[in-house]
Amino acid sequence: MSETILEIKNLTIHYVVDKETVEAVNNVNLQINKGETLGLVGETGAGKTTLAKGIMGIIPNPPGKILNGEIIFEGENLLKKNKKEMQAIRGEKISMIFQDPMTALNPVMTVGDQIAEVIRLHEHVSPKEATDKAKEMLEMVGIPGQRASEYPHQFSGGMKQRVVIAIALACRPELLIADEPTTALDVTIQMQVLDLMNNLKKQLGTSMVLITHDFGVVAEMCEKVAIMYAGEVVEYGTARDIFNHGCHPYTRGLFESLPSLNEDQPRLKPIVGLMPDPTQLPVGCNFAPRCPYCTDACKERKSDMVNLTETHQVKCDYAVRKFREETDNG
Amino acid sequence: MDNILEVKNLKKYFDTPGGKLHAVDDVSFTIERGKTLGVVGESGCGKSTMGRVIVHLLDATDGKIFFEGKDITRVSKGELKKLRRDIQMIFQDPYSSIDPRMTVRDLIGEPLKTHKLFSSKQEYEDKVSHLMETVGLAERVGYQYPHELDGGRRQRIGIARALALEPKFIVCDEPVSALDVSIQAQILNLLMDLQDSRQLTYIFVTHDLSVVKHISDDILVMYLGQMVEKCASKELFENHKHPYTKALLSAIPIPMVDIERKHEILKGEITSPINPKPGCRFAPRCPLANDRCHSENPELREIAPQHFVACHNI
Amino acid sequence: MKKKSYWMGVWERFIKNRMAVLGIVILTCLILCAVFAPYIAPYGIDDQNSKTRFIAPCAEFLFGTDNFGRDIFSRVVYGARISLQVGLISVAVSCVIGGVLGAIAAFYGTMADNIIMRALDVLMAIPGMVLAVAIAASLGPSLNNMMIAIGLGHAPGFARIVRASVLSIKEQEYVEASRLIGDSDFVIIMKHIIPNSLAPMIVQATLNVGRSVISAASLSFLGLGIQPPTPEWGAMLSASRAYLRDYWWMTAFPGLAILLTVFSLNLVGDGLRDALDPKLKH
Q1: Whole-angstrom Cα distance, residue C202 to residue C11?
Q2: Which chain B residue's Cα is nearest to A290?
Q3: Model ipTM?
């Protein structure tokens, strides 16, 4: 069952702008199994979108540069592929959903044509077959097939996002990267779209990388979770590991700053300070300047990723000590 | 009871090519001094429009607004300028609500200059510095431009500008929805601290129910321009009655695993209230809708003390 | 940290831009030429001499001589007075008229917008040159009237550009925010809308200086502007057309003078546009 579909090893992506280097993604290791959904959680500027674009092979160069690492998809290193091979993979094997459904569609093409275009690009089918298949895809995401001849402006936000999903899934990709797919939608519509994505995932067996800042969405959708901070994965594990035993101070901080629906809190506990400037990351742990448990050692060197359990890894010495103490005490 | 603001049958219609858009339709409520009214709803429910009508960025089509007992629905230019000192607003988007060509100190000082709230240059500088300190902006960012700052600090500038006039009442229009969670918590804490120290009254417009629960005393739920439910915050979360409120609450993804939750997934989409037909506007999506709902507009009724619901089926 | 005013910041950003500084230097030279023309020019503007006709550039006549045997260098130097004046003032006229109309149309919307923009559309439908001729003819030939005619002729272009940028700026939330703190329309326009919509106007203005100089030449050619023998670059250009094949210097030097003016103004304009925007840090 747990066959690895995507493995990212020591991936480092920098942007060089005006002699300044933005360390967008630093030494990231991740692994996604077939049929699983990985939630990539972090705040603005954590490097989530850069990582996703790295997997898709659409980092603009310049200014972007992949300095190091491997992205192994179905046993092959994507970074070794040439432009043509990547084009064939994009859309057919890996596809992506962007945050804003309003701008992701071409306003002067009917939605049916837009879906059919992707199908014809990757499959040798006649125009007629492609159109039929496009209608099928629309039905699959819950839009009546006869609406295929309508233009994007005739659809509401939630409907457009369904169309975007239909385009992304048109060629039955193995891996779907969804970058904040529901952030621009209202909650009741978000729930419809999440529900749809969950159903399609089960139906088609697609693996998924879901980028979000919303822990609620993660709890709803993901089996695995990676917490990103300033270009690094600081904690990685199953959803249960992260939600119930999350131990990196940043992970804890994120949870504590959420207003809760279930209990009364007189005051929220925000994380103090701001994310460091990605052109001037600290020598030591990136989170050290904001961390309540920071020691002198933290300021001098970065901690290594340590396995706490078979599934749960964390990049913080304090968290490791604390976790072991707690498990030792029962 | 000291009601600082009373809104009666407020209506705001817009003329659109498709007909009259009923953005705010017959909304009434009161707010006690020092309290927060949360206004919740999805896009197009008229919550932002209502906030803008109350602060007089838009004119009301019909209805009345009373501030400290005085009718302020229609005011002259001079009265409006005076009113601006009492009623302020914090905007949603800290990226577009401040002029990119002004420094932080100039931005915060602008309201002081407009209303000539200082007698000497020194007093002006002191006031600006004091405001910066109040909202937690370091003195050193004073001569920087907004684009050099992150969203949280930009939102602090917006808050400082609103506070500069020492208002009694602030409409917060989604002030944290553009911010990251850790920054969002900082701003929410700041807003609550300011309310305590200055006896401020807030209308807090948002689509985020967990935020509204945290900050509000009372909550008003809106759908397509109309009030569907209004009651105390606690009551709403424990004892909500309206099917829309129910659906809204069940649609929030909760950041917890290992809990069994059944989501009530609403069918259909939010439409826009252009030339609405009589009948409940939620009826096309409502699981409980019957013939009466499609033909007759439900009145807002007090079903328990201070708990108002507009639904035929309650 | 030291207190810096907005304009000091603008100045600092401006002088950091090498090309803009080059533009300022060239422009200053041209203006100095115009001011000190009597001290720089070796000959008078109308010293005709049948013995020195069509002399190629040499030590005695730096830029050569024309069909009347006049020194072209002296005429180009004196011409700077008229041409710079015409170029700058007529652009200023179109900036002010077009800018104000465009801003009013955009800011007050619907009625005002319709009336102003339709009127300007009518003006735009008439070729600029014909319009300028009509205005200059009805006002009578003189330097001032010519500048007004050219300025009016170019105003609709400015109005369109300003209207477009004001329309987008006025939808920005910070305009609403300043209304909320009680600013009047006048303050909002002056303090927020104009500074933020200046950039496209500056570019248009610098490009238009060259066009104005050429238009002035055409008007002069038709007898509606500067009367000969007053030297003016555009007029010199058009007068030399007949000799273009044999005596290149008659066209080249006044042409170069116009080119240099437009070039330097473009550099200054670009520099100014970037300097006015605090978001660009270079």
Answers
A1: 16
A2: B182
A3: 0.83
Distance from the Cα of B278 to chain C's closest Cα (Å) equals: 33
B255 token code pair:
């950041």
**C58, C85 Cβ separation under 8 angstroms:** no
Residue B129 domain-assigned (yes or no): yes
Shared domain for B177 and B305, answered yes or no, is: yes
Q: How many domains does chain B have?
A: 2
Q: Which two tokens stand for residue A142?
A: 């819950």
CATH for the C19-280 domain, from 1.10.3720.10, 1.10.10.10, 3.30.300.160, 1.10.4160.10: 1.10.3720.10
> Residue B200 maps to which CATH number?
3.40.50.300
**Of B57, B81, B145, which is closest to C278 when you measure between CB atoms?**
B145
B93 in a structural domain: no
Neighbours of B307 (CB within 10 A): 17
* pLDDT per residue as tens, chain C (282 positions): 445 567 777 888 888 888 889 999 999 998 998 888 888 878 777 777 777 777 777 877 778 787 777 888 888 888 888 888 888 899 999 999 998 888 888 888 788 888 988 988 888 888 777 887 888 888 887 888 888 888 888 888 889 999 998 888 888 888 988 888 888 888 888 888 888 888 888 878 887 887 887 788 778 777 777 777 778 887 788 778 788 788 888 888 888 888 888 888 888 888 888 887 777 654
Is the CB of B115 less than 8 angstroms away from the CB of C182? yes
CA distance C208 to C88: 9
Mutation test of the interface with chain C: which of B54, B110, B113, B140, choosing the one with the most C Cβ atoms within 10 A?
B110
Verify that B160 and B198 share a domain, yes or no.
no
B169 to chain C, any CB pair closer than 8 A? The answer is no
* Angle A14-A19-A25 from CA coordinates, rounded to 5°: 10
Domain termination residue (choose one: B110, B132, B166): B166
Q: How far is B107 from chain C (nearest CA, A)?
A: 10
- Rounded (10°) CA dihedral A200, A205, A210, A214: 60
Cis omega (within 30 of 0) for bond into A63: yes
Tokens of A324: 């072991």
* B153 and B290 inside one domain: no
